[in-house]
Each structure stands twice: as C-alpha cells, then as structure tokens.
Amino acid sequence: MGIKHYTIFIPASLTAESKDLKIKTYKVGLIGRTAAIFNVDKIVVYNDDADPREAKFISDILNYMDTPQYLRKKVFPIKKELKHVGILPPLRSPHHPTEMPVQGDYRQGLTLKRTKKGTVVDIGADKLALCKEKLSVNKILSFKITKLAKEIIIEPDKPEVYWGYDTIVSNKNLYDSIRATKPDVVVSTSRFGEPITSILNEVEHKLKKAKHLAILFGGPYSGLHDILQGQKIVDIDVNTVPKQGTKTVRTEEAVLATLSVFNLILNAE
Amino acid sequence: MGIKHYTIFIPASLTAESKDLKIKTYKVGLIGRTAAIFNVDKIVVYNDDADPREAKFISDILNYMDTPQYLRKKVFPIKKELKHVGILPPLRSPHHPTEMPVQGDYRQGLTLKRTKKGTVVDIGADKLALCKEKLSVNKILSFKITKLAKEIIIEPDKPEVYWGYDTIVSNKNLYDSIRATKPDVVVSTSRFGEPITSILNEVEHKLKKAKHLAILFGGPYSGLHDILQGQKIVDIDVNTVPKQGTKTVRTEEAVLATLSVFNLILNAE
After folding, report:
1. How far apart are alpha carbons A147 and B85 in whole angstroms?
2. Which letter, b or e, does each residue of B135-164 get, where b requires 16 or more Cβ atoms within 10 Å of its Cβ?
3. Which residues of A touch B247 (CB under 8 A)?
4. pTM above 0.90, yes or no
C-alpha cells in the first residue's frame, strides 16, 4: 500500500470520564504509545464539546511523549497537569536516541537563537550545534549531523524511518476538523459499522490508492454515529471489534485494536 | 472456526516493572478488559521467576474484575493490594447484569450454605435464591433462574453468550504450564516471529480444526524466545505487530494488538 500520511482523530472527551490525573495521564500515554507502535504521523484532538482544558491536557501529554528525553525539560514548563509524566512509558522510537550522536545521525533539536553564522540548535549533544540556515527559534525541528568535530554542523533533514507524530488540537468539530485535514480515505470506527470481517476486501481495495488515511474514533459519551449525525464525510464505516464480549470498547482500547487490524491490512502481502 | 476454548498465557512479571500500585492495577485492568472484549475463557499467569506476590496480585485484580459487582464485597476482603480497584473500568459483559433479575435470566451466584432443601445462593437479587442441588459452598457458580416468585429457584446452568474468564496462577514455568493446559494450537508472539502478514494463510489453516487455542505472551524482562529457550511446544511463532515504530511493544499492548488480529482471523468469513 502507498499510505504516506496516517492521521487519527481522537475526541477531546477522551479523558473527561476519569478524575484521577495519574490515570488520565496513563490513558493518553496509551494513545501516544499506540500511535508510535503503528507509525501514525498525526493525532488530531477534535472538539466534541468537552472542556477545552481536556484537549490541552491530551496534547500536552502527547507532545511530551513525542519529545526526545534530552529536550523535555527545556520545552515543558513545570505545571501541575504534567505532575505524573514520570509514569509514562517511553516511546523508544528512532527519534528518541539513547546514545551520543555520531556523524550522519538524524536528530531532533531545539532552535535556540540566530547568529550571523546561522541558527544555534540543542540536539542533546555535549555541545550546541550550528545549522547554517536561518530558522525560527524555539521550535523542535529535525536535522542531519553533517559534521561532528570541534564544531557540530547540522542541516534540516528527516530520515526515512518512523519519526514520531504531530499533535494538533482542533477547535472545530469532527466534521470540520476532517475537512481541514484533507485525507483521501476516511474510516470511522463504530460498533454500528460493518464488521471488518465482512468488508475486508472492500477496505483493502479502497486503501489501495490512498496516500493519506484518516481513522476516526468516538468518545466515552458518544459514538461516531451520534457525533457525525449523518454528515457525509466517511468512506468506510467499520466495526473493527466484531463479536465483542463487552458492551462497549473504550476509546484507548479501540485505537489499539483498530490500528492493529489496519497494520495487517496496510502491510498485507 | 470452531474454537471452543481460548486461553492466554501472561507472565507473572507483567507488573514487576512498575512500583506504582495504581498503575499496576490499571495495567492488569487492561488485560482483563482485553480478555473480555475478545471472549477469552482462561488467563494463565505463568511463573517467569517474578516475585510470587506479583502473580497473586495479577490474579486478584483479574478475578475482581470478572466478579459481578453484587458479589465483590462478599468475596474480596479489604486488603491494601486492592486499594485502587476503584479505577478499574467495568467489564460490562453479559455476566455482569445491571438490572434486577427476571425468570429465565442467567446469573452468577455465591453459594452460601447447604440446607435440607439444597443450597442457598446469593445472586444479587432482593432475596437469596435456592438451588435444589447440593453444591459446595463459598464458590461463585453460574445458574439459570427457573422460578422468580415468593421464592427464587435456580439451577446450575450457563448461557451460550460470553460468560467471563477464569484466572489460574501457575507455579510452573511457561512450558509446563502449557502442557498442563493441553491446548490444540499454541501461538507464541514475538518480535522475532514470522510477520503475521507473511503467514496469514498458514495461521488460518492451522486454526481451522483447533478447538482449544492458546496464545502466549512474554514479559517486560524477557521475550518468549528467551523464556522457552527452544523447547518444542509452539505451533505458530508470529510477530503480530510487523513494522512496529517502537523498539518494544509492552505486554499489555501486545495482548490487545494480538487478540484484535486473531479476532479477525477467528471470525473470518
């Protein structure tokens, strides 16, 4: 399959049910881990009328997880919502290196300041690196290390391997958030969708030419059929957990179960 | 497919990595939820040299989750390991009814005492029920309500729907635990197994005649290849998360991802 861009849509109400900050943190952690395991590029937190602080919290935690360990303290101010980030499992993805950099490595870095020579960047090495381009400061960007000697010289670049996800908080409802994202194929997941076992061939066929796949998830208070209310934007409406033994499947569970099934489809031989 | 019995094997070390009791509780909760979503009949906690208290904790939490709400206080003494059970999501499976029983319903009940007439059973109704058979007391068993009037009369019976899982703590290592369970087909899940996308037809074929499927999971400290050390008991060695974007997939994530893929295979049309 030729999917180049993989987006998932998560409701801001994801964490609204639980009052326990530690459990909320862990629950968002599951979403972040799932996204990284299955090579998701973008997570859109859509507005389903939850308290806007929920969306902010979800995106803070997701961004924290996606940020390499060596930049976290520099990027995330201490605040009480991030009190329990210590329990988050690490992503252990290629953009979170645990060893000192060598020449040719790719690294995410924080742009610190512009000088006459270019931009000074913190890439978590024993000294700051220099990029000869003028970049906007205080951003995390991706670089390749072209020289590592007395000076570290880097240039903006990304490797071919999975390189983490971006998180977007959308103030729009789901329908408008999807329109703004412009995916080729939109999959909605619902207990009321067609069982994946019945439409497997159809799903494979529809994904064949897709470049940008989006998968939507409902929330703890309402499923996607309620949220979209018949608005025509969905290409495939699927139940990815046919014959479920429980009355409901929670959002964080549905995301893992669904992306696992789509991983099989997207990598079919 | 004709699978009648579905068992998963979980290492006692599942929760050993985390020192936070609340997170440990939630993590086991994910396993219990996953088992119920995918209609697992039995969870075997095998001995992989973790502290035996871990296995006891895991089985306590799993049993707690599987026990109908109306029996929990009667069956589980207050103890500090169960301090955080309040954060566990309910299974919402058919054996956890939320309404008052009517005639013809199936219910799990706790056998309280034997009388001349039979056995007195607590089925969570407004009065105790009578089963005319002599049953051993202090056990949770399944019943059908044959009469519900001034007296509630029940008889031992189970419905056709998913009716929860049993949890077994095995003191044996994985190999001996599998031998004691006698499954037809044993599936080991490992990053080093064949990608599911390459052997999908073979897996489907091997499961066709199976009655008792067992799926094995490794732990946070060692994968199944290390644990089994070449012992010949596995029929299918599969990587259910091909192309993973993270270095490792955690046990609780692997269980959900794997059972989701097998749900697709087991219910294929």
Report:
1. 54
2. beeeebbbbbbeebeeebbbeeeeeeebbb
3. 92-93
4. yes
Q: How far is the C-alpha of A8 from the C-alpha of A214, rounded, in Å? A: 6
Over its C-alpha atoms, chain A yields an Rg (Å, rounded) of 20
**ipTM for the assembly:** 0.95
CA neighbours closer than 13 Å in the CB half-sphere of residue A13: 18
Distance between CA A145 and CA A151 in Å, rounded? 11
Mutate to test the interface with B, among A6, A23, A202 (most CBs of B within 10 A): A23
* pLDDT (mean) for B137-164: 96
Calculate mean pLDDT across residues B118-142: 97
Q: Do B198 and A269 touch (CB under 8 A)?
A: yes
- List the single residue in B162, B246, B264 with the smallest CB-CB distance to A91: B246
Segments of A53-209 assigned E as strands: 106-115, 118-122, 129-131, 140-148, 152-156, 166-169, 185-195
Residue among B20, B197, B249 minimizing CB distance to A37 = B249
Query: What pLDDT does B1 receive?
Result: 67
A87 vs B23: CB contact, 8 Å cut-off? yes
State the alpha helices, DSSP H only, in A67-158.
69-75
Residues in chain A: 269
C-alpha–C-alpha distance, residues A56 and A261, integer Å: 29
Residues with Cβ < 8 Å from B173, sequence gap 6 or more?
Answer: B46, B47, B48, B227
Model confidence pLDDT, tens digit, residues A26-78:
999 999 999 999 999 999 999 999 999 999 999 999 999 999 999 999 999 88
Enumerate residue ranges in chain A where pLDDT < 70.
Answer: 1
